[in-house]
């Protein structure tokens, strides 16, 4: 609390990013964990909560006549523009936020104060929801080819690896240790995914320290052991996910890539995914496009193209598809690495796994997948997502890209995933929120030292508890798409990926479809289920005529309510139903004498401003705009309790604020 | 002319048919006066043959032949954007087939076209043609206002050759005034009512451009006609679909705009929309880009941008929204015109109605809208849809305005997935039929021509075909739930997407998306059954249970 210079500022204006005319006046509060803006006046007293950990940048802009503007950009792609009347107040808020958004100790992070009022047992059960040993068992491991190794039991071999790693049975501790010495940061080849149908596997590691000519017998033996663990194939693929040029440059630093001549029976392959710095810049450029004010179609498409973002997404997908095909169709094992083997390697292994195994397309399976390929294998969450104040050059949207790949797949295979888009968006949110302990630190070792599991809660339990909000109504366990390997379609137009406005323009509600098919179908599904249950109940009670009366009427009144609500909600909406600003020149109808020529008239109209169709007029009530029906009318039971926009504001919030 | 003269070779054996995404099949190719058929014998000799291809030759947009040795390959590029390949043994046969298809597909005489020969068993001639669509529209309006009347000034198409015999005009304006006003508007297209906005009684009119010319001619009757629409002190908007500069330049060729001085109550807004050749070229470029197999993500967006198609979609939607906003929010009347008033004008007026009027969002209402605002209103379908995106022929008057309209409606359906009663399937079918059809609905350029060709007497209506119960179901949106509100779309670039269902239709498999669609149907129908059952159950209970009945009556 000592960092808050200014806990409360009144008469602050919250600008609508897309429409300067709409601004809300209210009070700004700074707490230990959140920035809160409470609107004045309106009955609802609409609140905007932003977690400090979500804030990526704060910009104090030049003071104007109306006050001092403060621009807050968030990691979940929210952009908040405030105008604070007094320059001095603005400065205090700015200085406070600068400090608050750059915590230096893990203990300052929100998850250590967040208290969802669960008892110890519930917390422990939450952490056990995802169990990696169970997951490897599900894959069929240990078996006669693969075993669990305790070589890294006290992080002695590799401090960014988990204690339990799965390796080929023929790889002795000597081979593992030897191989680890020949790999960047000692990240030796270990199992990521095993396909029990054909024994092919996906292993991962970092780059070899081959330089221009160095060799390592144990490393060569390690790769051979991986090959032997798949008796169906006489070679393995080694996939280097970097562009060839980058890999070659690494050789000068004593690192590099495998020489096909030194390893027996490997096929070496480059897949050019760019490094974290390129990706960070690419995202930056794309977000600039998202933030443009009333861009033309050309501005937008060119901007998007120049950002290169979707090209990078494609590169990751291509790598995933290559590996999935090698494993599923050729039955060949694959060793994947990049430089350190914790960014691109994590992306590519997890994308390939999604193609290969329907389990990862379920809600629980997806949690397991992130736990396995990202959390346990030492993806540096703290550095990449800037949870603690650190080197800005370490920050990069690595997992964001993976999450987008999943979304792109969901667009192409609408019935293949058990979860919906909201699930992905909320996971992305919590990678940055630090509300749960799952993604803290850079490795398992650090998390254990911090006793994360004893001091924080697990996101997975939280998501699982609310799983009804995250279900994809089109998913059916027995559907052809949910079965076995996903077969990507190979026509070129299938690789033209789409801009994900649901993520990057997440808070601009007016840009999105005004009616949610997913929510509607979920409601329909629920209602059907309910009616069927009621039918069953009625059937049972048919024999008992006395009790029947009560029940029958209940169903009836419910149905009447339903139609009534529909009419009601429609008429309510018409009040809030406003068009966007399609034109600016409607208001400025000039009342001039008719004698004037029309030259002036056209000049007035031709100004650039007027030609541009203006932006959507967004506001909090924009989702009540045209034609959005209240979903509760479809499902009487759902009661309209749609999952609220999760901006770190949980119902339990008040508790921790008091802490 | 006899069709047989054009057919040099009627049948060829062992022709290999291939098209993207499907296994190639071998069979016998047959050319008839209107169709290309390919039948195969999957079970070998003696088995009943299977028809693999049944292609309306009018659908062929371009024929390309490549000869190699003794055989040749013909590539047929169709107006619905499908691409087929035929491998034909024998060089001569190949050349003959190619030239026969070319000759048959370029028969330009309307009355030689297939709709005049098509006789489906389930339909009877002269049934299903919309009876007096304008009159019907007027009946609805007449229940709410007496300010408008039906005029038969154009009964014999003498006043305006591209208008239908009946038009809706201000009640206070005489036939003579209309005739004179018509002389002051391009193509005789004097201002007529396009849409009456029930909520506040404002109207949308459309017309051709005024013929002010370089000398700034005026026409008191035209001024009176427009003046009579507005009350004292009321303001109206003229949405000109050309830029102010183009509109001004049009004076040099006798056209122009309404000068402020002569029409003091009207404010002009210019919203330039692309039309004519540039629009056709945009369409051609986009189709080319979509079919480019070498295209990767690294160049796709730039390529998409350079086609300009999405910019046209955005502009059309924005302009229609502007018109709708003038009516609904500003509570002002609107006149829409460009130059001829048969292209972008209709695009805007039709689209604005879909946005404003829930009635136009039903399957029936949408058909009526198309009949009224495109077909009766004189959009020259025959000229505009003569060739599609593949044709090598020199462009004449082709322009995909109707496709642009369908694309905009698709964008609306994506942003408001519950508000349209029809599905994407209907939009695709309309696109196909506008370019090549078994039915007479989209034939000719206007009512006058249709009367001369006896289209209604000698062809079937597409609407009649679509209205058959088993056809109708294919075009329904399972998610539809009537929405009485105006649907204001977002026109930001983030909200406007490429219509993949159309532009990628033949180049990728839609298997997974179709499955999703089927699943949506299953869910919704499951729900309906459950509701029905539970209602029936309840009914039977209350009937059989006297106590329950009493409870209900209370």
Automatic annotation (TrEMBL), chain A:
Residues forming coiled coils: 521-548
Binding site for substrate: 275-276, 338-344
GO cellular component, one term: cytoplasm
Region (Disordered): 570-659
GO biological process: phosphatidylinositol dephosphorylation
Subcellular compartments: Cytoplasm; Endomembrane system
Record-linked Gene3D superfamilies: Pleckstrin-homology domain (PH domain)/Phosphotyrosine-binding domain (PTB)
InterPro entries in the cross-refs: MTMR7_PH-GRAM, MTMR7_PTP, Myotubularin, Myotubularin-like_Pase_dom, PH-GRAM_MTMR6-9, PH-like_dom_sf, Prot-tyrosine_phosphatase-like, Tyr_Pase_AS
PROSITE patterns on file: PPASE_MYOTUBULARIN, TYR_PHOSPHATASE_1, TYR_PHOSPHATASE_2
Record's bilayer topology term: Peripheral membrane protein
Tyrosine specific protein phosphatases domain span: 307-351
Molecular function terms, GO-annotated: phosphatidylinositol-3,5-bisphosphate phosphatase activity; phosphatidylinositol-3-phosphate phosphatase activity
SUPFAM superfamilies registered for this protein in UniProt: (Phosphotyrosine protein) phosphatases II, PH domain-like
Keywords on record: Coiled coil, Cytoplasm, Hydrolase, Lipid metabolism
Ranges of residues in domain Myotubularin phosphatase: 126-504
Compositional bias segments (type: Polar residues): 570-596
Active site residues per record: 338 (phosphocysteine intermediate)
Family: Belongs to the protein-tyrosine phosphatase family. Non-receptor class myotubularin subfamily.
Protein name: Myotubularin related protein 7
The gene coding this protein: MTMR7
TrEMBL record, chain B:
Myotubularin phosphatase domain segment(s): 128-503
Any single GO CC term annotated in Swiss-Prot or TrEMBL for this entry: cytoplasm
InterPro entries xrefs: Myotubularin, Myotubularin-like_Pase_dom, PH-GRAM_MTMR6-9, PH-like_dom_sf, Prot-tyrosine_phosphatase-like
Domain of life: Eukaryota
Region (Disordered): 535-554
Sample GO molecular function, one term: protein phosphatase binding
GO terms under biological process: negative regulation of autophagy; phosphatidylinositol dephosphorylation
Family the UniProt entry places it in: Belongs to the protein-tyrosine phosphatase family. Non-receptor class myotubularin subfamily.
The name this protein goes by in its record: Myotubularin phosphatase domain-containing protein
Organism: Phasianus colchicus (Common pheasant)
């Amino acid at each position: 609390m000592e960092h808050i210079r200014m806990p409360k500022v009144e008469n602050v204006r919250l600008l609508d990013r897309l429409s300067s005319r709409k601004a809300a006046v209210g009070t700004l509060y700074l707490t230990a964990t959140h920035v809160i803006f409470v609107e004045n006046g309106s009955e609802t007293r609409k609140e905007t909560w932003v977690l400090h950990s979500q804030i990526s940048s704060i910009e104090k802009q030049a003071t104007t006549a109306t006050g001092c503007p403060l621009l807050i950009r968030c990691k979940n792609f929210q952009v908040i523009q405030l105008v604070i009347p007094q320059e001095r107040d603005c400065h205090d808020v700015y200085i406070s936020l600068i400090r608050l958004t750059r915590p230096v100790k893990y203990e300052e992070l929100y998850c250590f104060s967040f208290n969802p009022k669960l008892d110890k047992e519930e917390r422990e059960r939450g952490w056990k929801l995802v169990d990696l040993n169970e997951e490897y068992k599900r894959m069929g491991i240990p078996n006669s080819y693969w075993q669990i190794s305790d070589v890294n039991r006290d992080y002695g071999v590799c401090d960014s690896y988990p204690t339990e790693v799965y390796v080929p049975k023929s790889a002795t501790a000597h081979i593992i240790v030897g191989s680890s010495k020949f790999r960047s940061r000692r990240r030796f080849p270990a199992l990521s995914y095993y396909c029990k149908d054909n024994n092919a596997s996906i292993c991962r590691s970092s780059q070899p320290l081959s330089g221009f000519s160095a060799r390592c017998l144990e490393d060569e033996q390690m790769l051979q052991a991986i090959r032997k663990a798949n008796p169906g194939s006489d070679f393995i693929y080694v996939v280097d996910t970097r562009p060839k040029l980058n890999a070659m440059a690494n050789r000068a630093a004593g690192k590099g890539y495998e020489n096909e001549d030194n390893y027996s029976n490997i096929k070496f392959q480059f897949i050019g995914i760019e490094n974290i710095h390129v990706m960070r810049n690419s995202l930056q450029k794309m977000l600039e496009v998202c933030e443009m004010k009333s861009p033309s179609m050309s501005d937008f498409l060119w901007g998007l193209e120049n950002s290169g973002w979707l090209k990078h997404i494609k590169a990751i997908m291509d790598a995933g598809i290559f590996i999935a095909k090698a494993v599923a169709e050729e039955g060949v094992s694959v060793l994947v690495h990049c430089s350190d083997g914790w960014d691109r390697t994590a992306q590519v292994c997890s994308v390939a796994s999604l193609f290969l195994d329907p389990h990862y397309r379920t809600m629980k399976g997806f949690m397991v997948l992130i736990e396995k390929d990202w959390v346990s294998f030492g993806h540096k969450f703290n550095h990449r997502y800037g949870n603690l104040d650190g080197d800005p050059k370490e920050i990069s949207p690595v997992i964001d890209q993976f999450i987008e790949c999943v979304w792109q797949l969901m667009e192409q295979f609408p019935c293949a995933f058990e979860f919906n888009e909201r699930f992905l968006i909320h996971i992305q949110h919590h990678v940055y929120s630090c509300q749960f302990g799952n993604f803290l630190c850079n490795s398992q070792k650090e998390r254990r030292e911090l006793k994360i599991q004893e001091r924080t809660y697990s996101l997975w339990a939280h998501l699982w508890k609310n799983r009804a909000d995250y279900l994809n109504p089109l998913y059916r366990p027995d559907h052809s798409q949910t079965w076995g390997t996903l077969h990507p379609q190979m026509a070129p137009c299938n690789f033209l990926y789409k801009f994900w406005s649901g993520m990057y323009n997440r808070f601009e509600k007016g840009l999105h479809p005004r009616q949610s098919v997913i929510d509607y179908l979920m409601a329909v599904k629920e209602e059907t289920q309910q009616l069927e249950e009621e039918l069953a109940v009625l059937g049972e009670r048919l024999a008992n005529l006395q009790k029947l009366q009560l029940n029958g009427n209940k169903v009836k009144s419910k149905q009447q309510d339903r139609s009534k609500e529909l009419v009601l909600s429609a008429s309510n909406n018409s009040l809030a139903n406003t068009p966007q600003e399609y034109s600016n020149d409607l208001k400025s109808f000039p009342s001039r004498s008719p004698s004037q020529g029309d030259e002036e008239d056209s000049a007035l109209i031709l100004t650039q401003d007027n030609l541009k169709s203006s932006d959507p007029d967004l506001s909090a009530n924009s989702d009540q705009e045209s034609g959005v029906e209240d979903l509760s009318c479809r499902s009487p039971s759902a009661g309209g309790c749609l999952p609220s926009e999760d901006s770190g504001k949980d119902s339990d919030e008040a508790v921790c604020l008091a802490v | 002319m006899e069709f047989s003269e054009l057919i040099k070779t009627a049948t060829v054996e062992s022709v290999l048919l291939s098209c993207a995404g499907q296994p190639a099949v071998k069979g016998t190719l047959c050319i008839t006066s209107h169709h290309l058929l390919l039948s195969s014998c999957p079970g070998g000799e003696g088995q009943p043959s299977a028809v693999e291809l049944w292609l309306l030759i009018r659908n062929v947009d371009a024929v390309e032949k490549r000869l190699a040795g003794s055989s040749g390959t013909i590539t047929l590029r169709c107006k619905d954007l499908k691409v087929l390949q035929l491998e034909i043994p024998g060089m001569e046969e190949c050349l003959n087939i190619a030239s026969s298809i070319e000759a048959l597909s370029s028969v330009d005489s309307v009355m030689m076209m297939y709709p005049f020969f098509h006789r489906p068993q389930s339909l009877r001639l002269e049934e299903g043609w919309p009876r007096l669509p304008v009159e019907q529209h007027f009946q609805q309006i007449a229940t709410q206002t007496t300010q408008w009347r039906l005029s038969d000034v154009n009964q014999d198409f003498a006043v305006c050759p591209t208008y239908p015999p009946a038009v809706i005009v201000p009640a206070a304006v005489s036939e003579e005034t209309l005739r004179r006003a018509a002389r002051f508007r391009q193509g005789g297209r004097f201002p007529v009512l396009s849409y009456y906005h029930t909520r506040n009684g404002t109207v949308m009119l459309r017309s051709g451009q005024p013929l002010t010319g370089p000398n700034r001619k005026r026409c008191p009757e035209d001024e009176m006609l427009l003046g009579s629409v507005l009350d004292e002190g009321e303001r109206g908007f003229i949405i000109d679909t050309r830029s102010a500069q183009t509109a001004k330049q049009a004076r040099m060729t006798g056209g122009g705009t309404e000068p402020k001085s002569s029409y003091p109550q009207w404010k002009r807004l210019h919203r330039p929309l692309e039309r004519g050749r540039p629009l056709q070229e945009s369409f051609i470029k986009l189709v080319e880009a979509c079919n480019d197999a070498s295209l990767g993500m690294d160049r796709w967006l730039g390529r998409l941008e350079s086609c300009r198609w999405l910019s046209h979609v955005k502009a059309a939607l924005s302009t229609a929204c502007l018109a709708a906003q003038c009516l609904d929010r500003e509570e002002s009347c609107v006149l829409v015109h460009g130059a001829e008033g048969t292209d972008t004008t209709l695009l805007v007026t039709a689209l604005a109605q879909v946005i404003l009027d829930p009635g136009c969002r039903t399957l029936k209402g949408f058909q009526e809208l198309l009949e009224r605002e495109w077909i009766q209103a004189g959009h020259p379908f025959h000229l505009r849809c003569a060739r599609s995106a593949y044709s090598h022929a020199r462009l004449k008057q082709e322009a995909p305005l109707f496709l642009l309209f369908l694309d905009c409606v698709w964008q609306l359906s994506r942003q408001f997935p519950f508000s349209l009663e029809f599905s994407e399937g209907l939009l695709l079918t309309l696109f196909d039929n506008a370019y090549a059809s078994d039915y007479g609905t989209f034939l000719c350029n206007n009512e006058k021509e249709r009367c001369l060709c006896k289209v209604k007497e000698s062809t079937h209506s597409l609407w009649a075909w679509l209205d058959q119960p088993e056809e109708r179901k294919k075009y329904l949106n399972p998610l539809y739930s009537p929405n009485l509100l105006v649907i204001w779309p977002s026109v930001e670039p983030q909200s406007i997407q490429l219509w993949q269902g159309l532009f990628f239709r033949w180049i990728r498999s839609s298997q997974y998306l179709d499955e999703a669609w089927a699943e949506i149907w299953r869910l919704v129908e499951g729900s309906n059954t459950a509701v029905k059952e539970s209602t029936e159950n309840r009914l039977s209970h209350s009937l059989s249970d006297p106590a329950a009945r009493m409870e209900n009556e209370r």
